[in-house]
Design a protein that fits this description.
Length: 550
């Protein structure tokens, strides 16, 4: 079976061969006049009942409920049973062994049916003969003697009484999902125990556990499926490799990356997300803070923070060592002759001699690193907070505001969907903007960084404009006494802002996923131009100097 990595490697990300980054009317988006021109939206052409297109360019997955999963599972079992001319119980055993890959089952079976039977435990006939004379049999577990009708066995024929079978099955079910691959109780016997034995002998409670394991195996062992990671959600995602992006949205409203199962994080790749999450949760930043804001006690080496007061430091008990904060020497060597309590000429002298250069350099580097990380993390977290707030505002709009607006302005709720679409766009843009800060933190190229920060700033400006429009300007119409023409103008404005914000952020995501290739192209073009100019100028000077020399 192909590994999941093979599947993911076959996934083709969207190419960067798109129209220009600013295509889609984004120039209008950044009109800096007090009253932006939204004339590009023809009012007669606006149909508010039509939901603005989804943020995905192509749906490449399906969300499955439990009944959908059971139906798919049953269909696969039926297909294998029909094609291979075996029972559904045997087909289930085969599919469990080959991780629910129907094609893999077919390939292996037709290549070596006997080998597959022996490997999986679907035997052609009993290993031990069954007595024809109706003689009593001995149970292989309790060693009691029973008549043939009270003895049960699987394909191998090893005899066990129903009581021992029931205990054996119950124990394995309560032991976890390993019961799905249960073998005959006889040691070293490869015969598989089929679903019919569980159905006939397990208690009602044990059957529920077994079938829960059975349906979960269909998702967890299937390389094309994953459970939605949202707490309490029992939906699965059936993903089609090779198309679109990894971002998926479950019916529970949770959006996540199918590849790494973290929250949806375009335009940042999964490795960067993992690196950023580790950094946020690791102790590295604590150590940077300690290095930047404290010094070790010269005696016990515990870090000490100085936030005010004189240079006379006293370590905490039991150490109680007294020393100078500047030079870290014993305080007994200090006094008026060394500069008093707020200065230390010994330190200044040592600093001039270079004795503290390395320590100061490490402390300064740690401080700079901490400040840089704090800059990006604060903005990453702020956009996450704003996104969560927007999600709450969306629910309020759906449950209260839209109904109220419909009553005041006499507009059907179906024609007020432009408001919820604006909130949905804000939520998506906040997510994208949040992850651009993780992208920027790990972006080393100085030229690209300048261009990236410009694009990021424009995105923030435009998003704030949309957010302000739907959050603040809408309030006027919620307290109006009746319909007004201004509401139609507001609808046109908000619809236009939503559309161009969507276009800008889609282009931003594509540009970042493409590694800001435009910067490389422009840089190469600039270098080529400069090189040609240099050669031309240099050649002229060379000829001139040659003539002068002659």
């Amino acid at each position: 079976m192909d590994s999941e990595d093979d599947l993911l490697d076959s996934h083709d990300m969207e190419s960067g061969e798109e129209d220009g980054f600013y295509s889609g009317g984004t120039d209008d988006y950044y009109n800096e006049s007090d009253e932006p021109d939204y004339g590009f939206v023809e009012e007669d052409d606006v149909d508010d009942s039509i939901v603005i297109a989804s943020r995905r360019s192509q749906v490449n997955y399906a969300v499955l409920k439990e009944e959908d999963i059971r139906r798919h599972q049953k269909d696969d079992i039926g297909q294998v049973s029909m094609v291979l001319s075996i029972s559904e119980v045997e087909a289930s055993i085969l599919l469990l062994h080959y991780h629910w890959s129907v094609s893999k089952v077919h390939d292996e079976w037709f290549a070596d049916e006997k080998g597959v039977r022996n490997t999986v435990g679907i035997l052609d006939g009993p290993v031990i003969p069954t007595p024809d004379d109706g003689a009593e049999l001995t149970c292989g577990i309790c060693f009691d003697i029973f008549p043939p009708e009270e003895i049960l066995s699987v394909a191998c024929g090893h005899p066990f009484c129903s009581t021992c079978w029931t205990g054996y099955i119950s124990t394995t079910i309560n032991g976890g999902p390993g019961c799905l691959m249960l073998k005959c109780p006889e040691p070293s016997c490869p015969a598989a125990v089929g679903q019919d034995m569980f159905e006939n002998l397990a208690s009602k409670e044990d059957k529920e556990k077994y079938y829960r394991y059975f349906i979960r195996s269909y998702v967890e062992d299937n390389r094309k499926m994953k459970w939605c990671p949202a707490p309490g959600c029992e939906h699965a995602i059936d993903f089609a490799a090779g198309t679109g992006s990894y971002d998926v949205s479950c019916l529970c409203s949770h959006s996540f990356c199918w590849n790494c199962t973290e929250e949806a994080h375009r335009p940042v790749d999964c490795d960067t997300v993992a690196q950023w999450i580790r950094k946020n949760s690791a102790e590295s930043e604590n150590m940077n803070w300690i290095l930047a804001n404290s010094k070790p006690c010269p005696k016990c080496k515990r870090p000490i923070e100085k936030n005010h007061g004189c240079m006379h430091m006293t370590c905490t008990p039991p150490c109680k060592y007294e020393f100078c904060w500047l030079c870290l020497n014993a305080w007994t060597e200090h006094g008026e002759r060394t500069g008093g309590f707020y200065a230390c000429n010994k330190y200044e002298a040592g600093k001039q001699e270079g004795r503290y250069d390395e320590a100061e350099k490490r402390r300064e580097m740690a401080k700079n690193s901490l400040e840089r990380y704090t800059h990006y993390y604060e903005r990453w977290a702020s956009n996450q907070t704003s996104r969560q707030k927007a999600m709450g505002d969306l629910e309020i709009a759906r449950s209260e505001k839209i109904e109220k607006l419909s009553d005041i302005h006499g507009t059907p709720e179906s024609q007020l969907k432009f408001i919820t679409e604006a909130w949905l766009q804000i939520i998506e843009c906040r997510r994208v903007l949040k992850w651009t800060y993780a992208y920027g933190y790990y972006l080393p190229d100085h030229d690209k960084k300048q261009f990236f920060e410009y694009l990021q700033g424009e995105a923030e400006s435009g998003l704030e404009r949309l957010h302000k429009c739907v959050e603040k300007e809408l309030e006027v119409f919620l307290v109006a006494e009746g319909p007004s023409d201004d509401f139609n103008q507001f609808r046109t404005k908000l619809t236009g802002l939503t559309s161009i914000t969507k276009t800008y952020f889609e282009n931003l995501v594509k540009a970042l996923e493409n590694g800001l290739a435009d910067v490389d192209t422009q840089g190469a073009s600039s270098k080529s131009t400069n090189s040609k100019s240099s050669k031309t100028n240099g050649g002229g000077k060379g000829k001139g100097s040659s003539k002068g020399g002659n």
